Amino acid sequence: MENKTYTILPFRFERFNEDEYLITNEVGEFLFVKTNEFNCFVNNELDTQSDVFLDLKSKQIVTDTEIEPVIKMLATKYRTKKSILRDFTSLHMIVPTLRCNSSCIYCQVSRKDLNDHQVDMNKKTARNTVKIIFQSPSPYIKIEFQGGDPSTFFEMVQYIIEEAEWKNLFEKKVLEFVICTNITLLTPTMVKYLKKHKCVISTSLDGPKDLHNKNRPLQNTEFTFDIFEENLEMIRGLMGKDSVSALMTTSVYSLGRFKEIIDEYVRLGFHDIFLRSLNPYGFAKRDENKIAYPLDDFLKNYKEGLDYIIEINRKGTYFVEGYAALLLKRILTPFATGFVDLQSPSGVGISCAMYDYNGNVYVSDEARMMARVNNHYFKMGNVNENSYQDMFNGELLHKVIESSCTECLPACAECVYQPFCGADPVRNYSEQGSIVGYRPTNETCRKNKFIMNYLLVLIKKNDPEINSIFWSWITKRTVIEN
Amino acid sequence: MKRLKGDNYNIHNEILGRITFRKHIVGKSKYIYACKGFPNITAGYLATITESSLAQISSPIVCNVEEFSYLNEGDVVTINSDNGISVLYEKKSNHNSIMLTELCNHRCIMCPQPPISKENERTEFNLKLISLFDKKTKSIAITGGEPTLIGDKLFTVIRHIKKELPNTSISILSNGVKFADRDYAKKLELCSHFDLQVDIPLFSDIDSEHNRIVGAKTFFKTIEGLYNLALFNQNIGIRIVIHKQTYKRLPQLAEFIYRNFPFVCHVAFMQMETTGLAAKNIEELWIDPYDYNSELKDAVFKLARYGMNVSIFNAQLCVLPVELRQYAKQSISDWKDIFLDECNDCSSKLVCAGFFSSSKEIHSNHIKKTT
């Protein structure tokens, strides 16, 4: 019989570079080991006093003593990593109207013109929406206004805010509001109202003037960017310096210009950026041939952008790349992250839900984007027709969630990046025709793996400065010098 | 615990009392009268202590007390038939502690106060002692031995402190093993003290290493204890004594703590006190603290970056790299805190932890005054 000196616990692995393997386990512990050490490890030939053995043991990947208490520790860590599941749906997105005064070249929601009042939510739908939202068992409720541009129907935004606040007098949950708007239509009166009701503003900024105007022109004016900048200043004056956060979207015109885009964010006083690729929904899907680009082009730009942002931090300016920060939190900490797109099971429906102007409820924002082109696969129901139970404990959501655990999805189940990644059944369905998806040609998969791999390359460098910068992003604190 | 030398007379039973220098005070029967010169009045006090030599006095008295000026109004001392005075509580100190038991279920190789195997019950005495403490006492450390070995009486002590000293914070120094019993941990929560922390030593991220150092197979019990205390929302600190057998994996231990116990509110890395068993086992334990600076630095900065509250205890500032000094704390109890001759003109003396009195002979070779 073989002389077995230790027990190997579940792990995943992949060759990381010429002479090293990356090992991860279910709870996100990871370690790089040399090829020969890896071979010894799996063949039960590792010296149990060697550093590499002790490191593997410290991370609960192997044990040469007790097993049961080690499994208990893993279980505790697993619960922490999955703690997001405890609360159920907390992010509730509402579309008060589909009308918009922008005509972004990549509009993913297929917006409607300003005078098309058919796409406005009515009060009954709004009341029922709030009623459904408050049936979520989550102690945290975040209501996010999407559009169109919700500022074009501000009365409805106010109606919903007040309806929710009224309801919360009895429910006593932690209630937050976010409004996603191009800010160009916001007046000081509106801003004061948002401040009073503690509604934060999330806007879009695609880069320097010419690029922003090219990607996100307003209807009937060539001064989009100037209006944006003027209003940004007005809002900050009234609500405070950090009251507005911004998101960018990469169009084909943005490629090769990430440095300029980042500089523009810094110039305008933002502390973070989220370098986002185009989501293939709505007009972005319709006009794919004009504004889309190969994924590899984005990834090349992303990498350069991230490097540039790290340089900015090295020079002493605290500035975060949002997607990297999220992944780093998943890789380097024992905690869970709330980001819907990186969950297993997927966060659709169980972390977020989308309430359309007509009362339709979808499992996510992307799901309603799909609905705009007449694909209603991810519709859970309608607030005017269905009960909370029908929708949030319905067959559709059960099925989607069942098929979106990366722990058991084909290819994901064996992937070394599994503990850091998440499932996107909506994207799988829209791009590949099934909620399970097909990994070898899956672009989301390729994008996430590329970025995680690059982050791990940087982590592996063990450069004290980069470490400090990364941790300052995770902990949202200034850099700890060493 | 500070001992003052002296000659004891007329003392038949142990006397526990609060020091006063006042001739007239209400409730004399709780007080021990301290008088530098020859005491004229002794009546009504529990005992008298003096620097002068014996006169014809028939009440309990300690004469020829050395270091008389060490004592302050409000200190608490015991006197028994053995010569001398034990100072159990120093009003001016921030490091007062109560020893609940000298028994222990661990046999740590570097234990500065080796446990005994049999002892008389001390809880009644301790309750009386606590009642004599000044109401303004900021904090009390509950120590041992292993304080949980007195079982539920630990909670009696905590409740008594809560009642007598409602504004005093408590730090319990425990190996955590007993808290693996969930009901026991629950009982601590039920004390609902407003500011209580359990400080638990953890010497390695590897079970067998930790077990060898503590002389018992309790690593996973301690971990279970940490989890249970966290479950009941208790404040938890982790303490790591650094010596030859622990320094190498300090960075890995730091990561292990963050990954497994991110809920702890403090992590303290401690320079070893070279007394008790540490002195006996010095060959296997001693490493010049200067020589583990790189591991210590790595570990401290890891935890600091993680956003955890981290400190270095018992370390001399001159031995630490400049960037680590901000984490150093003055952690040595006043009665055994000393400085060397080299420290005389040091500009950092006032903010330095100094040395354990036992370090006079054994200390780092890198002590030099900082400018």
How would you sum up this structure, described in words?
The complex is a heterodimer of chains A (482) and B (371). Chain A has 482 residues and is α/β, with parallel strands linked by helices. Chain A has 19 helices and 16 strands. Chain A has a 9-stranded mixed sheet with strand order 12-10-9-8-7-6-14-15-16, sandwiched between helices. Chain A has a 3-stranded antiparallel sheet with strand order 2-3-4. In chain A, strands 1-5 form a two-stranded antiparallel ribbon. In chain A, a hairpin with a 4-residue loop joins strand 14 and strand 15 (360-362). Chain A starts with 6 loop residues before the first strand and ends in a 7-residue tail after the last helix. Chain B is an alpha/beta fold and 371 residues long. Chain B has 2 domains: 2-87, Phosphohistidine domain (Glucose Oxidase, domain 1); 97-359, Aldolase class I (TIM Barrel), CATH 3.20.20.70. Chain B is 23% helix and 20% strand. Chain B is built from 9 helices and 18 strands. Chain B has helices at 123-132, 153-164, 182-190, 207-214, 219-231, 250-260, 277-280, 282-285, 293-306, and strands at residues 2-4, 7-9, 15-20, 31-35, 47-50, 61-63, 76-79, 85-89, 97-99, 139-143, 169-173, 196-201, 235-242, 266-271, 310-313, 328-329, 337-338, 355-356. Chain B has an 8-stranded mixed sheet with strand order 1-8-7-3-4-5-6-2. The longest helix of chain B has 14 residues, at 293-306. Chain B is globular. The A-B interface holds A 29, 54-55, 57-59, 65-66, 69, 72-73, 76-77, 80, 333-335, 464, 467-468, 471-472, 475, 477, 480-482 and B 205-208, 220, 223-224, 227, 249, 252, 255-256, 258-260, 262, 297, 301, 304-307, 323.
Summary of the model, kept short:
With 482 residues, chain A is α/β, with parallel strands linked by helices. Chain A has helices at 35-42, 51-58, 68-81, 123-133, 154-171, 188-196, 209-215, 224-239, 258-267, 282-286, 288-291, 295-314, 322-332, 365-372, 388-392, 395-402, 425-432, 443-461, 464-475, and strands spanning 7-8, 12-17, 20-24, 30-34, 62-63, 91-94, 140-145, 174-180, 199-204, 244-249, 272-273, 275-276, 320-321, 352-355, 360-362, 379-382. Chain B starts with a strand and ends in a 15-residue tail after the last strand.
